[in-house]
Structure formats: structure tokens, C-alpha cells
Amino acid sequence: MLAVLAAFAALWNSRSVSAISDEEGKLHTGMFGLAPQQTARLNLVHIGDPNENPAPCAAEMVFYDGFGNRLAQSRVQLRAGESALLDLQHQQLGRAGRVQVRAEWVGFNPQPDPPGRRFGKCLGTAEVFDDVTGKTTLVIGNPEDLPPPRR
Questions:
Q1: Strand 57-65 vs strand 16-17: parallel, antiparallel, or unpaired?
Q2: pTM for this structure?
């Protein structure tokens, strides 16, 4: 019984969700909240093996508000092992209180995808963290997209 309670407590405290939807050449999240003194961050990493000389990962990372207005954007081209991020701080929005936002990654390179992977060697995640403490309060990603550990 104690083991069941410990497992439930571990799941209860988890804030990681698999809420990334994909379609051809695009990943996007649902809406999530950004409160004062918080920053939303989009991450993109090229998880290809540099020794295999894979094609670069080219994409645009975008934040939108609830009305479809672009709040921030960044275009990147990553080689294997490289990563990029895009931050959106609540204070940049000039709005009081909590703001609903969503994220999108567009334009992944057209290289062939490995079996079971829709976007080749690029992996996107989103997170929200506290500006004062740096503590991450929300992670949005798909754990099934992570590659197996290298041995």
C-alpha cells in the first residue's frame, strides 16, 4: 500500500504533460497560462548524431496569444547537437494578470524521418519558469519522442 501511495504522490507532483500535437512540418501546443513574473520558453534541439553528418534542422519558433496574434518569433537552423530557445517574458506583453498563450514550431527540414518519428532529428519542448527563482513550473513535451540513451 505504501508503494502505491508513493507512486501516486510522484505522479501528483509531476507537471510534465504530453500536449504537443503534430502535423506535417508543424508542432504546436494547446493554450497555457503565463502569469506575472513568469517566462515561457520554447526549446528546439537537433538530436542527430554529428558523426553521421545529418541535414540541418531549420524551423521557426512562434508564440501566439489567444487571438492568434504573434507575440514572439525566431527562425533557426541547427546542426546536429545544437539547440536554440525563444523566451517570452510576461512583462514584455504589457498586460496585467495571467495571459493565455500557445506555441508553434514550423518548417522542419524535409529529411526522411526515422521509423516512428514524424519530425526527423528535431525535438521541441516548451516550459514556463519563475523569473525570480528560476524554478520550472510547467514542461510541455512528448516523452515518447526522446531518443534511447546512448551506450
A1: unpaired
A2: 0.76
The domain 16-143 having CATH identifier 2.60.120: the answer here is yes
Cβ(40)–Cβ(136) under 8 Å?
Answer: no
Question: Nine-digit cell at 151?
Answer: 551506450
Can you tell me the distance from the alpha carbon of 71 to that of 137, in angstroms, rounded to the nearest whole number?
A: 21
Chain length of the chain:
151
Question: For the segment 85-143, what is each residue's pLDDT rounded down to a tens digit?
Answer: 999 999 999 999 999 999 999 876 544 555 444 445 788 899 999 999 999 999 888 66
